[in-house]
């Protein structure tokens, strides 16, 4: 059996990022064969992934990057099972690696991002699986968003578990950095379901109308008036739950649509993406 030296262990640690004892154990099992030892460590990570596949991931980090010209934004959410893991350097470095890969590849989907090759030739997903073996709990990219627009604003909430990208159009020559951040903060706080009423899906509209009718019926309103009352409640739903119609949280005398128009005539939001790591 090959003698396993401290230098061998350190070499494998550098290659894989795995812990010292795990590396020593893998090298011993592989009789000093580094490639075989790497395979053992990968299998260890996959075992963790398989065993903990159904576990909840309620902690983690949300990160954002906006291009230098402000026309593209990336948003990634890497989740884990426990708060202590979200605070360790290996986890934070992996989250940064995922964001950097998104920026470098301009991946269109999460699947494309996870398949992206890293410097060592392995995929990003393989790196994630390897860290599962080292940390011993489930890690998951629970969200990835890629937004392009005239200008993109981003915001990461103070808990680092919620983030937003806002796509703006009709920017003209205005400096929209402040209003873009304000709108992004609004989205984190108020959780709009759509941009405006045209973006609300039919099932939600139908549900809100039925709720409105049931409420009116419970209040003893005549059957003939239920539809009209329900439509009124639906309009209130639009005002409270669609971004452009919401009152601005910092100044409820204006809606988000009015706030944007005051900043630059015609300025509006073409899209937004909100991600959150939740239990």
From TrEMBL:
InterPro entries cross-referenced by the UniProt entry: EF-Ts_dimer_sf, Transl_elong_EFTs/EF1B, Transl_elong_EFTs/EF1B_dimer, Transl_elong_Ts_CS, UBA-like_sf
Alphabetical keyword list: Cytoplasm, Elongation factor, Protein biosynthesis
Segments forming domain Translation elongation factor EFTs/EF1B dimerisation: 74-276
Domain of life assignment: Bacteria
Keyword Secreted among record annotations: no
Cross-referenced CDD domains: UBA_EF-Ts
PROSITE patterns listed in its UniProt record: EF_TS_1 (PS01126)
Cellular localisation: Cytoplasm
Single GO MF annotation: translation elongation factor activity
UniProt xrefs under Pfam families: EF_TS
Chief location: cytoplasm
The family this protein is said to belong to: Belongs to the EF-Ts family.
Biological function: Associates with the EF-Tu.GDP complex and induces the exchange of GDP to GTP. It remains bound to the aminoacyl-tRNA.EF-Tu.GTP complex up to the GTP hydrolysis stage on the ribosome.
Protein name: Elongation factor Ts
Organism annotation: Hymenobacter endophyticus
């Amino acid at each position: 059996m090959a003698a396993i030296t401290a230098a061998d262990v350190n070499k494998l640690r550098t290659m894989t990022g795995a812990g010292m004892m795990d590396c020593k154990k893998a090298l011993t099992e592989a009789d000093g064969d580094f490639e075989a030892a790497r395979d053992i460590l990968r299998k260890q990570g996959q075992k963790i992934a398989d065993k903990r596949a159904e576990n909840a991931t309620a902690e983690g980090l949300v990160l954002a990057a906006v291009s230098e010209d402000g026309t593209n934004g990336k948003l990634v959410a890497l989740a884990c099972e426990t708060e202590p893991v979200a605070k360790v350097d290996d986890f934070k470095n992996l989250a940064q690696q995922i964001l950097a890969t998104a920026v470098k590849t301009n991946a269109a989907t999460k699947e494309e991002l996870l398949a992206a090759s890293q410097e060592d030739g392995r995929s990003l997903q393989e790196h994630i699986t390897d860290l599962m073996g080292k940390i011993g709990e489930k890690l998951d990219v629970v969200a990835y968003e890629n937004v392009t627009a005239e200008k993109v604003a981003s915001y990461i909430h103070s808990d680092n578990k919620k983030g937003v990208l806002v796509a703006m159009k009709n920017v003209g020559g205005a400096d929209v950095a402040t209003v873009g951040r304000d709108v992004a903060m609004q989205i984190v706080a108020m959780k709009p379901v759509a941009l405006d009423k045209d973006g609300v899906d039919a099932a939600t509209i139908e549900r809100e109308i039925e709720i409105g009718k049931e409420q009116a019926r419970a209040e003893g309103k005549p059957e003939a008036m239920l539809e009209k009352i329900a439509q009124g409640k639906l309009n209130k739903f639009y005002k409270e739950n669609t971004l452009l119609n919401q009152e601005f949280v910092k100044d409820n005398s204006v809606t988000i649509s009015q706030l944007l128009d005051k900043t630059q005539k015609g300025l509006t939001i073409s899209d937004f993406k909100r991600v959150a790591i939740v239990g």
